[in-house]
Structure formats: C-alpha cells, structure tokens
Amino acid sequence: MIKTDAIIIGAGPTGLFAVHQLGIIGLKCEVIDNLDRAGGQCIELYPDKPIYDIPGIPECTGEDLTNGLLNQIKPFKTNFHLGQRVEEIKKENNFWIVKTNNGNLFSAPNIIIAGGVGSFEPRKLSLKEAEKFEGKQIFYSVTNKNLFKNKKISIFGGGDSALDWALELSKSNEITLIHRRNDFRGAAHTLSEIKKKEKEGKISIKTPYNLKSILGDKAMSEIEIEHEDSKVEKIKTDYVLSFFGLIMKLGPIVNWGLNINNKTIPVDTENFQTNKEGIFAIGDICTYPGKLKLILSGFHEGALAARACFKRARPNETYRFEFTTASKSIHDRLGLKK
Ligand code: FAD
Questions:
Q1: What does the pLDDT read at residue 178?
Q2: CA of 202 to the centre of ligand 1 (A)
Q3: Is pLDDT of 326 > 80?
C-alpha cells in the first residue's frame, strides 16, 4: 500500500499542474493514469496543434505544454503510475483507498480526480475470436518492443501509430501493414519512408483490406484479410498490432458514489470538492455554473483543490498563503536559491 497526501487520478494538463500546486505547499502526491504517458488530451489528441490561450505563452503545441508542465514539477520527484486504470475507491476512517486494475493500492486523505472526459481506451478489433489472443498475440499498444524481435507482425490502422510502429518494427521484423482504405492518415514523411521499405521488401502494404478471421486454436498462426472486392488472403502472423484510435469512456468513475451530471462531476467552487469529503474534481471532468472546458480553468481549479487538500493532510497546521517568489519554504521545495 502506497501512502501519500493526495492521489491524483489523471495525468492530463490539469492533473500535472495540481502536482505543482500540492508540491509548493509541501504536500506529496502519486499520479495514476490509464495511458502509458502523461499529457491527457494534449498528447493523445493534438500533440502538434497550436494552443493560443495559455497565459504568458503566446503559442505552444500540446506536446510543448505537456513537456513544460512535466519540467515544472521535476523538483517534486513525483511518482507516476502509468498504464493503470483506477477501478475502485473506498473509505477507511479518514483515508481514501484507491485500487488500480493491476491490483496496486494507494491510501491518502485526499483524492483529486483530474479524469478529463474519462479514461482513453483503445478501440478493439471487432472479431469475437480476437479476445482470447488479446495480451498474448494481439496488442493495442506496444509497451515492450523486444517481444516482437524477428517475428511476423501484421499491423492494422492508417494513422500515425500504425505507420510509426510499422517503420520502427520493420528494423527487425517482417511487417504487413493493413488498412481498410487506400489512403493513410499518418504523417506524409513517415508514409514515404514506409514506401521505401516496401520497395526494399521489408514492409508489405495491403489496402483496402479488413481483418476477416484469425486462424489457430491455442495460438494464432495465420490471419485472413478480405479485400473490398471480397478477395481473401492468408497471412502468416505471430503478432497482430491494431491501432484503430482511442475511445473515451467515463469508465469506473461512475461507480464511486459521486454525483454525476451529464458525464461530469458537480463540485463546490470554493474548493472543488465533490459530494464526498476529501474527493475533489478538477479540469474537464468537473462541472459548476459557468464552467469553461479550457486548460486554464483546470489550473485554477487545481490550485484551490490543493489548498483544501492541505487542511485534510495537515489538520494540525495552519495553511498560510505565500507568493512563490517571496517564500523561503517554496524556494527550498523548488530547489531554488533565494
Ligand atoms: P484530460 O486531458 O482529458 O486528461 C485526463 C486523463 O485522465 C487522461 O489521460 C485519462 O487517461 C485519465 N483517466 C481518466 N479516468 C481514469 C481512471 N479511472 N484511471 C486512470 N486514469 C484515468 N483547451 C484549451 O485551453 N486550449 C486549446 O487550444 C484547446 N484545444 C483543444 C483541441 C482539441 C482537439 C481538444 C479535443 C481539446 C482542446 N482543448 C483545448 C481542451 C483541453 O484539451 C482540455 O480542457 C484539457 O485536456 C482537460 O485537461 P484534463 O487534465 O482535465 O483532462
């Protein structure tokens, strides 16, 4: 069981800035996110898109903003638990116990839900028989590319993830890249690299094809793909990687006994507390009269929630407001010389 002052659910921009706001007032936190990297919507949905409404930064991309937020919280040496979805929350005395889908347990007087529009989950293959091979020979993300060394890999999808992994894994594998349309959506320069690899015989491109069936009983040995003109082809395959994008689901948050209004959590704007004492909600997931689903609103909400967390984590101390520039203790926490 990991004990801390606050558990942050969601490593989007709001959750990342909440780490900072907790850190400067001397509180520790642990951050959990379902995705395998921090950044939430900024990194998953628009890493290259410019953002023009972050105060003091005339223009940055989703990726720049994420990197900036991660740099800003470096002094606090916060633990991130990525690739884990928070499933259950329960109360024991004055502490909240949080359990993730892989069985990790956390305990804290405070939880900050910065869950955005819910957990991002991969859109899975629609074939029923795919289920039994998932996590063994069928994957929706790559966490350990060594698993795929010197293997026959069929990659499905037409976006950046499919193209990037086809190119990367073609260094040591036989790749078949399969897409249901003739045109790919991914970056043009990656596609031209892939076309070069096709000429060298390292990648075989199959369009417009769909997955028709998976052959093999205990282990998958081959797949059948079907052309839009109904022609069927068999491909020897050790692994299938499928990149059909992400879907957003509110997920387990609905089961935690919180008031939910139109897929968002109503909060008290004094401290962003939900209907449960010690559980706060900030960013896109929270709602209140006048709520704007903007990153800057999430920053403000995190600042107030952090101060409320202080009262529960340090009941015998008085929180004293200080500007970051004037405070010796904040300078120490940030590792700055005064
Ligand atoms: P998110 O960024 O959604 O992050 C939430 C995180 O919580 C996710 O990583 C998710 O995996 C995780 N999570 C959820 N449930 C669980 C669970 N049970 N267990 C573990 N993890 C969980 N805003 C602006 O201010 N300016 C812009 O220019 C702008 N442009 C945008 C462009 C697009 C295309 C989109 C889609 C949005 C844009 N926005 C913009 C909105 C902005 O991205 C959101 O307001 C912001 O991302 C909200 O941040 P968040 O941290 O609340 O949530």
A1: 97
A2: 37
A3: no
How many angstroms is it from 145 CA to the middle of ligand 1?
27
Q: CB of 113 closer than 6 A to ligand 1?
A: no
What percent of the chain is helix, strand and coil (3-state, nearest 5)?
A: 30, 30, 40
- Measured in angstroms, how far is the CA atom of residue 210 from the centroid of ligand 1? 31
What's the CA gap between 303 and 20, in Å, rounded? 9
pLDDT tens digits, 42-63: 988 888 888 899 999 999 999 9
- Mean pLDDT rounded to a whole number for the chain: 92
Token duo for residue 291? 């709520």
Q: Which two tokens stand for residue 126?
A: 């629609």
Q: What phi and psi, each to the nearest 5 degrees, are found at residue 254?
A: -70, -15
Q: Is any atom of ligand 1 closer than 6 Å to the C-beta of 23?
A: no
Residue 282 bridge partners (DSSP): none
Pocket flag, ligand 1, residue 46 (CB < 6 Å) = yes
Q: Which ligand 1 atom is nearest residue 295's CA?
A: 25
Those residues with Cβ within 8 angstroms of residue 293's Cβ, 6 or more apart along the chain or in another chain: 284
Report pLDDT for 212.
96
Residue 287 alpha carbon to ligand 1 centre in Å:
14
Among 53, 295, 296, 299, which residue has the most ligand 1 atoms within 8 Å of its CB, making it the best to mutate? 295
pLDDT 10s digits, 201-224: 999 999 999 999 999 888 999 999
Distance CA 2, CA 140 (A): 29
pLDDT of residue 338: 54
Q: Could you give the CA distance from residue 338 to residue 330 in angstroms, rounded to a whole number?
A: 10
DSSP 210-275: EEEEEE-SSS--EEEEEETTS-EEEEE-SEEEE---EEEE-GGGGGSS---BTTBEE-BTTTTB-S
Please report the sign of the dihedral spanned by the C-alpha atoms of residue 312, residue 314, residue 317, residue 323.
Answer: negative
Q: How far is the CA of 297 from the centre of ligand 1 (A)?
A: 12
pTM, two decimals, is 0.77
